Automatic annotation (TrEMBL):
Listed InterPro entries: AraC-bd, Homeodomain-like_sf, HTH-like, HTH_AraC, HTH_AraC-typ_CS, Tscrpt_reg_AraC-type_HTH
Keyword presence, Isomerase: no
Keyword set, alphabetical order: DNA-binding, Transcription, Transcription regulation
Signal sequence coordinates: none
Source domain of life: Bacteria
Protein name from the UniProt record: HTH araC/xylS-type domain-containing protein
GO molecular function per UniProt: DNA-binding transcription factor activity; sequence-specific DNA binding
UniProt keyword annotation of Transcription regulation present: yes
Domain HTH araC/xylS-type: 181-278
PANTHER family (UniProt xref): ARAC-FAMILY TRANSCRIPTIONAL REGULATOR, HTH-TYPE TRANSCRIPTIONAL ACTIVATOR RHAS
Amino acid sequence: MENQVFALDFNPWCGNGEAVVLFSGEHQTEACQERGPQVLDYYLMHLVLSGKGRFQTRGNTFELRAGQCFFIFPNELTSYAAMPDDPWHYRWVGFTGSRVQHILTSIGVTPHHPVIHLSHLQHAKYLCTQIQATLNRGAAYCDLEATGYLLLLFAACGPIRSMEGEDKLALVKRHIQKQVREAIHVLHERMPEKVSIAEIALKAGYNPSHFSKMFKSCTGMTPNTYLLQLRMEHAKLLLKKTLTIQEIASQVGYEDPLYFSRRFKAYFGFPPNVYRKMHEMADSYHLL
């Protein structure tokens, strides 16, 4: 194993902005050295230079080696550790900013997809080195210089940067479809609860408005419309059982049975108690 290496430099002029470097460092770890479980309030990127390690987040475990990069998102429970036989050596950058989430999403990095493989490790290593060297000098405007290198580093991480035309569009389309499928799964699971579409969008790494457009491009309807349809169709099935209107309302995500009845009538054209009577009368004739 290489000699123990640890270096860390902070941004002495840290402020607010679209993308702001907080600190940067380098570490040759010891065997089995572990960080976490932990929850951070900033973004943290690790570039693996050599050796191997393990990264865990959202119930997934990623085994990483040289040339790979993993991102830790704010408010996510994570842990990572060096392998016992070949502990990793990495550089890391901590950062924040109002546009960071959008930038990471644009290069295909989200809380569900936090690991990427770099095709040009040496270039990414150089950029990380320059970020730390800039912070170490601590000169006036070093924060702006570090941010410039950070944006170049993001560009170097972009998985579709070398693709052209249809290949790039196909990759983006597959990524969008996967995100929408995951959102639909969440909507089905959480239908009886108070569901925040904005929360689902942000957890997937998207602006809510952009996420709604993505969802509609795949399903033909917005997430809110899809959720309403899901609830109303399920309520219609429950009305065929011996449940009260209040029980049905609760099972499809409505605390107020009167509000549920109004939504049901607006959707189908008649209130739930009328539908139930229609079903009871027509059941023997198989009309409904």
